Amino acid sequence: MESHEKDLRSAVESDEQRQAIQNDYRAAGLTPSEVVLLDYAVKLTKDPRAVGRGDLDALRRAGYSDEQLVDAVHCIGYFNFINRVLDGLGVDPEPGMRYAPPAIDIDALKSRLKATWMAGDFGLIARSYEAGAAEFVRRLAFIPGMRVLDVACGTGNLALPAARAGAVVTGADIATNLLEQARSRAAAESLSVRFDEGDAEKLPYPDASFDAVISMFGVMFAPRPELAAAELLRVCRPGGTIALANWTPGSFVGQMFKTIAGHVPPPAGVPSPLQWGDESKIRERLGGGVRDLKLTSRVIAFEFPFAPAEVVEFWRMYYGPTNRAFEALAAEPHRQAALRADLERLWASHNWAEDGSTRVEPEYQEVIATKN
Questions:
Q1: What is the average pLDDT across 103-124?
Q2: How far does CA 322 lie from the centroid of its chain?
Q3: Were 329 and a residue from 119, 224, 304, 335 both cysteine, which residue would form a disulfide, CB within 3.0 to 4.6 Å?
């Protein structure tokens, strides 16, 4: 890493620059290769289980050799080891020796997330796994009159089958265009469902308002998971049900997110949504607020009547996060092409279909618990 270390040392000669890097290294005037390296260091420090091949590929594209990558892992590992030893001894390290997450402009981040989920047309993506969503609801065995809240409801993949079962259903989402689609779908079936604009981290409902609070591939994307978990618990009555479906880190979708992150790093300081698919994180976040917590690994099918390369283009057009990732690389066509090639390889390698269509079966974590 000698040449990059020299560059990085020269970049932090002043106290002002050092402080700028500690506050938010992405806005500190570093080179793109230095930012990629620090992205990797932060991820390896905060969530080493989330590190994947896409992260290493991003470093290689930034100009780092495999030998330099080994050096980087040793340096980052030594830094973390020293901090843990100091913690164990009760010693406070020198200022600057600890990793301090960058300050987050939460309002700007929320606006960005809302724009991401309103980009494209998520309804076309959601349609590909409607059947699996209906199966998830059937397993919950709702009875007529139950008050059910679908958090981050999207176009109603859970809310509508719950209403068909006779539940009194409310759906909340930050994306107003998806709520409009959900209302249209409910009206087409003469179903009475209330759809509200609402933030999973600050739900607009009183305490203990619902008998069941559910979410499929939705609440996991809230940027502050502890707040989102607290809200799920707050609006559910004691003895009520919390039911979630969350993508797992090792699933096809988990690999897709990691592939995209290798080309377009996610916002700094925000935990990976894939942590919601990790058992230890689920238990930590729901904690003493629930009992009878049951985790079940399940799969859900994505089916498309065209080949994997066309599926990638379909997701580029209609799935908000993929749409925005390609848009972020619009000024660099070669990087767009590299992202597309990686995604096409991923979809092709997981395709079960043999007739020119595409069928992948991502794993998710089904979480069912009773509110204390």
A1: 93
A2: 12
A3: 335
Query: What's phi and psi for 244, nearest 5 deg?
Result: -130, 150
What residues contact 271, with CB distance under 8 A and at least 6 apart? Answer: 46, 47, 223, 225
The pTM of this model reads 0.75
- Percent of the chain that is helix, strand, coil (3-state, to 5): 55, 15, 30
Among 195, 197, 193, smallest CA distance to 176 is for 197
List phi, psi (to 5°) of 191: -100, 140
More confident residue, 57 or 297: 297
CB 163 within 8 A of CB 214: no
Q: 298-351: per-residue pLDDT in tens? A: 999 999 999 999 999 999 999 999 999 999 999 999 999 999 999 999 999 999
Q: Which residue ranges form the domains of the chain, and what is each CATH number?
A: 2-103 (1.20.1290.10), 109-371 (3.40.50.150)
Tell me how far CA of residue 366 lies from CA of 132, 156, 250, 276, 278, in angstroms.
12, 18, 15, 10, 11
Q: What is the pLDDT of residues 244-280, one digit of tens each?
A: 999 999 999 999 999 999 999 988 889 999 999 999 9
Contact between 309 and 358 (Cβ < 8 Å): no
Q: How far apart are CA 178 and CA 200, in angstroms?
A: 15
Instruction: Transcribe 168-229 into DSSP letters.
Output: EEEEEES-HHHHHHHHHHHHHTT--EEEEE-BTTB-SS-TT-EEEEEEESSGGG-S-HHHHH
Question: Picking from 18-32, 172-186, 330-344, which range would have the lowest pLDDT averaged per residue?
Answer: 18-32
* pLDDT surpasses 80 at 213: yes
Residue 242 in 3-state DSSP?
strand
To the nearest 10 degrees (0 to 180), the angle between helices 308-318 and 320-328 is 90
Query: Six-digit token pair at 229?
Result: 């978990």
Q: How far is CA 67 from CA 1, 52, 60, 63, in A?
A: 8, 17, 11, 12
